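5-formyltetrahydrofolate cyclo-ligase, pasting as requested.
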Amino acid sequence: MTALVILGCDSVMSATITGGYAKNPWLRPIRDHMNWLRELRESPVRDVGREPEPDKRTLRRGFLSVRKGLTADDVRETAAALAVRALELPELAGARTVAAYVSVGSEPGTLALLDALRARGVRVLLPVLLPDNDLDWGAYTGADSLAEVRHGGRMALLEPAGERLGPQAVQEADAVLLPGLAVDARGMRLGRGGGSYDRVLARLERSGADPALVVLLYDTEVVGRVPEEAHDRPVHAVVTPSGVRRFR
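Structure tokens follow.
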């Protein structure tokens, strides 16, 4: 049986794994993750008696490096577990419209969850990246409704190929599923740095909409603390393959 113990630090968390790598393939990269966290903690301090706090860029590099160590089988198995956990959320059980996204590469997989929501009769909205990094939205009607789109030199994204509903369409969502690289004990999310979802969250706040905000992550990406800026907004819950943690 796998025992996962999370210990809080000032800015990061350490994970101790006792066995279970064979039963849980997605835990394989954790040794690398632990080494990376240890290097951050043991790096030279700026002030005597004070540990340095890694900035967002450093943390992003570390989490992305760990994700690159996942195999296609790891991603597929965790996607199935993630869908089961997410579908248990009351916020999704009662939702009529959910704004979500299509995972790419080694992100926690979302397609199984999107299809399960559609099977429930939920209207699923997916983002379309605009030139200014804002997000338009379109309806998901199945895998054949997606088109691969490459924005400049970035990774190709899977976006809805149908009608564009406008950036304000997200305000109709009862729940918004957010991508990220980490979330901390306060619910503060570390994104990739493009700012697209910062705009979404600001738009929701301005409109007075109050959907459930849920970030989908791997177990090792729930950490003690991530740096925050004035525009950052906390999420309400995080779903990982092993469970759910709420922040309100």
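Note for the archive: The first strand starts at residue 3 and ends at 8.
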